[in-house]
Structure formats: C-alpha cells, structure tokens
Here is the input.
Amino acid sequence: EVQLVQSAAEIKKPGESLKISCKASGYNFTTQWIAWVRQMPGKGLEWMGIIYPDDSDTKYSPSFQGHVSISVDTSISTAFLQWNSLKVSDSAMYYCARPKLGIDWYFPFWGRGTLVTVSS
Amino acid sequence: DIQMTQSPSSLSASVGDRVTITCQASQDISNSLNWYQQKPGEAPKLLIYDGSNLETGVPSRFSGSGSGTHFTFTINSLQAEDVATYYCQKYYNFAITFGQGTRLEIK
Here is the structure.
C-alpha cells in the first residue's frame, strides 16, 4: 500500500528557515515522481514543483522557482520542501503527492498535509 | 504558460440534480486533464484522470469528458456527500496547473 507520511505542523517566525518532509512507503521510492502542492487558508490548490528521486530532476512552477527548494534523500525514501527565509505569506497547508505512474501526472496518492504557520 | 479557467466558482444544487463544471485550457492539452474532489480538512481525492477515466473506487455518477481545450466534469444524481470543492488539473509539457476550484453546495 502506497503511503505518504508528512511531518508535523510547524510554527515559525518570519525570516526563519524550515524543511518539511514527506516519507514514502509501499513502493520503489526512486522510480516515481513526488510533487508538492500549496493551499493557502481558504484558497485553492497551487502546484509548487515535482522531483524525480532517482536523479533529483526537478521541475518548479514559475510562481515558486527561487522561493523554495525541493530535494530527496533516497536512503530514507523521503522528499523535502525547504525555505531559507520564511514570510508570513508562506503560511499554508502543504501537501505531497505521487502520480499513479511515470510522467502521467495525475495524483491518486496524497499525504495528509503539513500546516505551516509563520507569524511574528 | 498554459492557463486553466474553471467555472463556475461556486454552485448550489439539489439532491438528485445533474451538476456540470467546465475547465478551459488556453492551449491544446490533448486529454491531460484530471478532476479532484476536496472536502474540508482533507487532502484532494482523484476522481477522473486523462479527461474521462474514472479512478478505481469512485462512484459511477462522476464522469468527465473533453479533449483539446474544453473539458467537462459531471455529477449525475447529486448526493449530499458530494458537498466539496472540485478542481481540474492539467499536466502538459512537464508543467502542472490547477483550476481555481468550484465550491459545490446543496440547496
């Protein structure tokens, strides 16, 4: 059974750094893309980027390029989403998701989300 | 960058009604269009993939159609448990975009 387990909620201050995680199980982690999706409070879904763990090939949405970093650690089957300097506007729910297969990027598998709150 | 325009942004319908949501792409995306349901406090759930394919375990009252630039999502015989926000999502040319969402309520 495919499972994506996300790290716990975070409360941070503006300017702080943060790295949240998404641990995968139930399949060969290196051979399936993993995506990150943002949902700001009361708003819609926004694709942030997607990474292929085998070679760390990463595609970013233009809206998020340069603002976040997506990475993986294949030794622990985990994907990461990282900020170097958080802003209040980064407060949101962040989901990781896995496509069914290959480059057919529709997502039947989702984590439960990590709520990030940035406040002074 | 391909833009997706989803409409309406909200709608209210009665149990048993047929509900239709549309998604328009700014360029031809073939059939690379998917539909999700998201209930409050939950992660999105895949309902339809590649335009018209029903995801395993999804009730048959949900359906999708279209290709190219115009896509339609339909719920036949709306049920109370279908109250949710619905999103289209395209994947094309190694980029993903979600529609703005449609909030569905029961009258």
Q: What stands out?
A: Chain A has no helices and eleven strands. Chain A touches chain B at residues 35, 37, 44-47, 50, 59, 61-62, 95, 97, 100, 103-108, 110-113 (CB under 8 Å). The longest strand of chain A covers residues 18-25. Chain A has a mean pLDDT of 97.
